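Continued from yesterday's entry.
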Amino acid sequence: VDAVLYTHPHADHVFGLDDLRPFNFRQGATIPCYGSATTLERLRQIFAYVFEAGEEGGGKPKLELVEVAAPFPLLGDTVVPVPVEHGSMPVLGYRVGPFAVVTDVNRIPAASFALLEGVEVLVLSALRYRPHSTHFTIDEAVEAAARVGARRTIFTHIAHDVDHGALRRELPPGVEIGYDGLLVDFA
């Protein structure tokens, strides 16, 4: 694991932090973790034992928290933060060249749609059919995907009450459902 990009500090997006320890041991290196100032502050609170001096015990992750406020270089590419809204919470999507991921979103501002122009592969959350106050419905995600115009859009963060087989048949060309183990080539 060369780096971690955090979108926001909700449990389902950050509770794997402690699982970075084995990568530290194997790689013998600190792992940079990128996120907004708010997200990084919440990580410091939620995982205080990681960031405070003290007993190592069985070891704790060795992480470098890096605040994201503008595009930044990473592993020979430029990562562009894409601000979106998750209810009233600001969340960051990320774009790397022709690839972008935007999860936990119910509104993409016009300026952020502009940051997504030319994306070839888009990973986008599509929670469910019923309206939700902090997530795109499937129909809203289809509309957003059409507006971005990526060659390939992969829906993620889908609720348990959605029949994936039925949804798969309903999606327009170029839109598909993500799954565990999916590999995406965006080079």
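--- second protein ---
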Amino acid sequence: MTTFDERADAGARRIAWAGRGMPVLRGISARLAASGALRGLRIGVGLVLEPKTANLAFALRDAGAEVSVFCSGHSTDQETADALAAAGLAVFAEQGADDERDAELARAYLATSPDIILDDGASIIRLAHREFPDLVGRLLGAAEETTSGVRPLRAMHADDALRIPVVAVNDAKTKYLFDNVYGTGQSCVMTLLDVT
């Protein structure tokens, strides 16, 4: 059984390796840091917790934001979570957590009062609307990564129930013309190869 420090060290190495292939993110972070646009903002990152996501969290932190991270138990890489926690970020993610524990972690994550939420599947945005109305009243906005997450948010908007602006990331051409075609396709092929 590995220790927290061993997992955090392994996660930090994997995060650094992934970060070497993310020069655009580093450039954007440097520009945001120089402009001060994120200084003092609290940003909640609620995406699949893997080394790429950790690099995004670090980039936001380095640009001046206070960053908290949430991820469900079935999408959390524990080494990555431990590396982020060891670096001082507030992490609300446990690999293998059941639905009840995930709900506890999600509520604790929202209790950090983020100004902006980056969501994957709209579960956090919907939870905020159901259980954190004061937070929703103060949120600057959110971003939703997926088609499956945008659908319920569009339904909420149609019902006049969506109280914050949300950027539908999936509507960006670089997302649906590149990632959805090549990234998702590659993931499907790699999963098939892993399974077989």
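The first helix runs from residue 4 to 19. The first strand starts at residue 42 and ends at 46. Will compare against the first tomorrow.
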